[in-house]
Design a protein that fits this description.
The complex is a heterodimer. Chain A is 65% helix and 5% strand. By secondary structure, chain A is mainly alpha-helical. Chain A folds into 2 domains: 174 residues, Potassium Channel Kv1.1, Chain A, CATH 3.30.710.10; 82 residues, no CATH class. In chain B, helix 6 runs antiparallel to helix 8. The N and C termini of chain B lie far apart (111 Å). Classes of the chains: A mainly alpha, B mainly alpha.
Chain lengths: 297, 845
């Protein structure tokens, strides 16, 4: 319940939604209210208000220690995985509980996507993780310009009211001390969306990967991203693989050039370590060469 | 970059899902395989979808999706072959096989049908169960393997696991021998079983339709190939042809049997019932896609070969249905015929035959001498003139009585009556047929045309149809419409117009109509001028302007004459102030070309009848009017038609006791002339027929008839005749009858049989036809010249066509007559034949 309340407030801060603070409600005449009501906004508002509200919920998604009260009409219509889990004659259809063996932070943001058509890189929630806040803000400025810095701070205050969320840092603390790298987060979100058959989320996360990767063609992030991309999805899933190959091809010079203070972003060992990437890259190089030769006759 | 700081990353998802080469494919498969078997054994509710899905996904991420696909395929095949197949084959009892072995569908299955039916339903329910289980399980398995399907069959290189499992069902359950030692497959038994149940239903038994429907939908859900093209559904490739073949045999036999029964109504009802049944069968039991095909079978086997015979069926066919007004049966028949023949030719033909036949009966009845009361002489028609046959005596004895009744305007001449009866009967027949057309034939246009043609055919076969129809109008406009409302009159006239539509020789009708109209107008017999005018406008709408032009000009003459009479009266009162003795004159000035010739006093030889000698008083009046009229319209010629006129005269009868009785007599102009003669002679003196004829110059026929009215008719004997006989002979002597008695002061003395509009005698008709042909010759010539003037040059064929096209609204020209007219025009150098091409004409200006 507390979670729901916090979220409503959080979502309300998107500017074009009418303010419903105690003072302004009084001032608003009905006419004024009408003028400020846009039909699409009404639906968004409704979605925001039912998000994780157990009142109309008919399905529970469980992940780790988190439980999310969701709605089949929202979830099953967007994901073949959830639809089939609910419609088949399996255990889930009678219990209306779906237990996911996934990273809880990803699942939480997937559900965020179901209701708001977007997601954030999950913050670990540590008050002292300043870099994370900076990180999140910079990401938000890229992808979600409507979210303000105030948004961030309110999220922090939310976590105090949310017992589950408050628990989380302890879980994470078991194997790691801090939170997620955004690039890695987006890549894994893509993998989850692919597994869950959520096309919209796939598209969004792929776009986020592209933007983030473009910024991070450095010796730390790049090899790791390639590793993630080639290990998080089956070989037949070409979305991120093509993205990685294209990005590499178009920034090859930058990636292979070392500056005085750092190593090259694309070290030779990457070719040995991820043979599938090497093969994709080889095909791309050949195609490029052939087309160039043809062009020059 | 701020994020360049080192960090520990969490990659939990990769740890739980992403494959590591060491993960054991076989271990995961083992879990999956037992779960898939669990689905088949209906234990799915204890299985977690998420877990199965995750396992399948893991195998795919190991890049071993295709292997998984093949393993599942093998597992399904094994399941179907070892478990499902035996369930199905075990449910097939020997009785079903026996029927399959003996393909003799015609044998009486009744005694064993109950047993076989029970076996059939048992087999079908097992098959249905099996199929539904398979569908449900495969649906679930496909869901679990969703991710595998996307990688393995996403690029269409492999059929989806669901499609594969359907093909497996087809090959491992349906297309396997029932017993190892037999060649008959489950599929064969399924087909023969459904056909057997359908046959049971056709024989009137209840069957389990939903059960069959389930099995059929199985056949519809299975395909010959994994490409699953629409046309390769098993239902279409295997069952449907068998069903249609069986139906073909069935309906062929049923058709033969129904024909043998020989009742058209039963045939139609049964056929329509079958059509309805098959439609329902297709929609409820089999497949809706079969409906057009089974309809074709019924049309081809049951209806098409038999419909002709049914329509003509003796004593029950169309003829009988029409006579008995069996509208429902006729509708059934129509529906059936319309299915197989857009033109409905057999029905149309039979209907047309019957209409013409009935029409002929009406024609014959009207032309045959009507049976007594009137004795035979009267039946030949009281002649108007030129008929001096011997049975005069008997005839005359009847006529006076008629005149008597005519005062009450009741009796109608018997032949006129039969003419009106002819019209009425045709109208009744038309109504009857129209009713059938409306209710049974769905207002079909083809049939409408055929009905019209049939009516036209027999109506025009009656040579006197134009005359009869005109008499019908005449009778109704004189008396029939009295006391009727406007609507009724309208309907009555419309009915007449309806028949006019059928009459081909509209000019002949016009001739008669004008003749009858002239008498109505001049004798003031018309009951309502409104009705007359209404009639004209109706005719104008139906036949056209040209047709009514002359008739309208007759009305115009009447109106002008009325004005003329008034202005003449005013003129006389101004010039000769006090002359009370002067008779009033009411005059009708008729344009000679517009009015019928016999009204204009022209006889056969086209010579005008010599004017009779008027008494002085009348002569003065006549001359006075002529002066008045010619003063106004110089250059015109007036000729007086005494035969058409009438006069009111006051007569003084001095009784033997010296009393004086006055009567007002309404007589014809000729009678007036005759009676005035007796003013000139002393009381008691006599005049002979010859004397009267000499003094008046009245044509002999008219004189005889007028004298008969005055001296023979019992109620109007103003003159005495010696000898007192019915005949008038030249030697007869006449004298004024002072003892004349009548209960009324006003006495109307009609002329014997001369002014009533009646059926013409043969001679008159020939006369009319002759006149008509003459007129037609002119019309044809005019048309030929008109066309040639416009076209300058035409072939014979084209000219003929155009002439016919122009004239058919008035009459159907005789081709020979048209040829003669063309020749005549060539002789008179209006046209010439084009030099070497004898068949082309050129117009000569």
């Amino acid at each position: 319940m507390a979670k729901k309340k916090g979220n409503v407030r959080h979502l309300r801060e998107v500017p074009w939604w009418p303010q419903e603070s105690e003072t302004s409600v009084k001032d608003l005449s009905d006419e004024h209210k009408l003028q400020n009501t846009i039909p699409g906004e009404e639906l968004f508002k409704a979605l925001a208000s039912i998000r994780l509200d157990p009142k109309y919920s008919d399905l529970t998604i469980v992940c780790g220690r988190d439980e999310y009260a969701v709605h089949k009409c929202i979830v099953c219509t967007r994901s073949d995985f959830f639809r089939k889990a609910c419609d088949g004659n399996f255990e889930e259809s009678s219990t209306n509980r779906i237990v996911l063996q996934e990273e809880p932070a990803l699942v939480e943001q997937m559900i965020e996507y179901f209701y708001s058509l977007d997601y954030q890189v999950k913050s670990g929630g540590y008050p002292d993780s300043d870099h994370e806040i900076t990180d999140g803000t910079s990401l938000n400025e890229d992808t979600h310009s409507t979210t303000t810095a105030g948004d961030r701070s309110s999220q922090h205050s939310d976590s105090e009211m949310d017992p589950k969320r408050a628990n989380k840092p302890k879980d994470l603390a078991e194997d790691s001390t801090i939170s997620f790298d955004p690039l890695s987060f987006h890549i894994l979100m893509y993998s989850l969306a692919d597994r869950m058959f959520i096309d919209g989320l796939k598209a969004i996360s792929k776009e986020k990967v592209r933007k983030e990767l473009r910024q991070r063609l450095d010796p730390d992030a790049f090899p790791q991203a390639i590793f993630d991309i080639y290990n998080s999805t089956p070989p037949t899933e070409r979305g991120l693989r093509n993205l990685a190959v294209n990005m590499t091809m178009s920034h090859l010079t930058e990636l292979r050039t070392s500056s005085e203070c750092s190593r090259v972003a694309f070290p030779d060992r990457l070719v040995t370590e991820i043979p599938q990437f090497s093969s994709d890259l080889l095909v791309a190089v050949m195609n490029k060469s052939v087309s160039e030769w043809n062009q020059w006759g | 970059m701020a994020s360049m700081r080192a960090r520990n990353k969490i990659r939990a998802p990769r740890r739980s899902h992403a494959s590591t080469p060491t993960e054991d494919f076989d271990a995961i498969w083992k879990i999956l395989a037992s779960s898939l078997s669990g689905i088949h054994t209906k234990n799915a509710s204890s299985l977690s979808f998420e877990e199965l899905y995750r396992n399948a996904y893991r195998i795919v991420t190991m890049s071993r999706g295709l292997e998984l696909y093949e393993r599942v395929k093998a597992l399904e095949k094994d399941w179907l072959h070892n478990h499902v197949r035996s369930q199905v084959t075990d449910s097939i009892l020997p009785i079903l096989l026996r029927a399959e072995n003996g393909p003799d569908r015609g044998m009486p299955v009744q005694e064993q049908s109950n047993e076989r039916r029970a076996a059939a339903e048992r087999f079908l329910s097992v098959l249905k169960e099996t199929w539904q289980d398979h569908l449900v399980c495969m649906g679930m398995i496909t869901d679990v393997l969703m991710y595998m399907d996307r990688t393995v069959s996403g690029d269409r290189s492999n059929p989806s696991i669901f499609v594969v499992s359907m093909a497996l069902f087809r090959d491992n359950v349906l297309r396997v021998p029932v017993r190892p030692d037999l060649s008959i497959t489950v599929e064969h038994v399924l087909h023969s079983t459904i056909l057997f149940l359908v046959q049971l239903e056709r024989d009137g038994h209840m069957i389990d339709r939903p059960l069959i429907r389930h099995c059929v939908s199985m056949l519809e859900g299975l395909y010959e190939t994994v490409m699953e093209e629409e046309t390769s559904r098993l239902y279409i490739t295997t069952f449907e042809p068998l069903f249609l073949n069986a139906s073909q045999d069935f309906y062929r036999a049923e058709g033969a049997q129904l024909l043998e029964e020989g009742d058209a109504t039963t045939f139609c009802r049964q056929a329509l019932k079958r059509i309805g049944e098959e439609q329902e069968r297709c929609n409820v039991t089999l497949s809706a896609s079969t409906e057009p095909k089974i309809n074709q079978v019924i049309d081809k086997e049951l209806i098409l070969p038999n419909i002709g015979e049914v329509v003509r069926m003796d004593g029950t066919g169309v003829r009988h249905m029409l006579d008995q007004k069996q509208l429902d049966s006729l509708r059934d028949l129509y529906t059936l015929n319309a299915r197989v023949d857009e033109k409905k030719s057999v029905l149309t033909q039979e209907l047309s035959n019957r209409i013409i036949e009935l029409g002929h009966e009406i024609n014959t009845m009207s032309l045959a001498p009507p049976p007594p009361p009137p004795p035979p002489p009267a039946a030949s028609g009281p002649t108007q003139n030129g008929d001096q046959a011997t049975p005069e005596n008997g005839k005359r004895s009847k006529d006076p009585k008629k005149e008597k009744n005519a005062e009450k305007e009741k009796t109608v001449n018997t032949q006129t009556a039969s003419a009106i009866k002819w019209v009425d009967e045709i109208l009744a027949l038309k109504r009857q047929i129209d009713n059938v057309w409306l209710h049974s034939f769905k207002s079909d246009q083809t049939l409408h045309k055929s009905i019209d043609d049939s009516f036209g055919e027999f109506i025009n076969r009656n040579t006197r149809s134009s005359e009869f129809l005109s008499l019908f109008f005449d009778e109704n406009l004189k008396k029939g419409i009295k006391g009727k409302t406007e609507d009724e009159v309208d309907t009555l006239l419309d009915n007449g117009i309806l028949l006019l539509r059928y009459i081909k020789d509209k000019d002949l009708f016009e001739t008669y109509y004008k003749k009858h109209l002239a008498r109505r107008l001049l004798m003031k017999k018309s009951a309502s001028m409104d009705a007359e005018r209404q009639m004209i406008s109706k005719m104008k709408m139906e036949v056209g302007n040209q047709f009514t032009q002359r008739i309208e000009s007759m009305f115009r003459d009447m109106a002008i004459s009325q004005d003329l009479t008034t202005s003449y009266k005013r003129h006389m009162s101004q010039t000769n102030a006090a002359d009370d003795d002067r008779p009033d004159l009411e005059v009708h000035v008729l344009t000679s070309t517009m009015w019928p010739m016999d009204v204009m006093g022209k006889n056969k030889n086209k010579a005008e009848a010599p004017p009779c000698v008027y008494p002085q008083q009348i002569k003065t009046l006549k001359e006075s009017f002529e002066r008045f009229y010619l003063d106004k319209h110089s250059g015109r010629q007036l000729s007086w038609q005494a035969a058409m006129g009438s006069a009111d005269i006051r007569a003084k009868f001095v009784r033997s006791n010296g009393k004086v009785q006055r009567y007002e007599l309404n007589v014809s102009t000729y009678m007036m002339v005759i009676l005035l003669l007796f003013n000139e002679i002393a009381d008691g003196e006599t005049l002979t027929f010859t004397q009267i004829q000499e003094q008046t110059q009245i044509p002999e026929n008219d004189l005889i008839r007028n004298l008969q009215s005055l001296a023979v008719a019992p109620k109007t004997r103003v003159l005495k005749k010696v000898p007192m006989s019915k005949d008038v002979k030249p030697t007869d002597r006449f004298s004024f009858n002072h003892e004349f008695q009548s209960p009324f002061v006003k006495v109307r003395i009609g002329v014997v049989a001369g002014n009533a509009n009646k059926v013409e005698s043969r001679g008159q008709r020939e006369e009319t036809e002759k006149k008509l042909n003459e007129e037609r010759r002119h019309i044809i010539e005019a048309a030929v010249v008109r066309i040639m003037k416009q076209r300058k040059r035409l072939t014979h064929l084209n000219l003929m066509n155009e002439v016919l096209a122009q004239l058919t609204s008035r009459f159907v020209p005789d081709v020979k007559m048209v040829k003669q007219r063309i020749d005549s025009l060539i002789d008179r150098e209006y046209l010439e034949r084009l030099g070497d091409e004898a068949s082309t004409y050129v117009y000569l200006a």
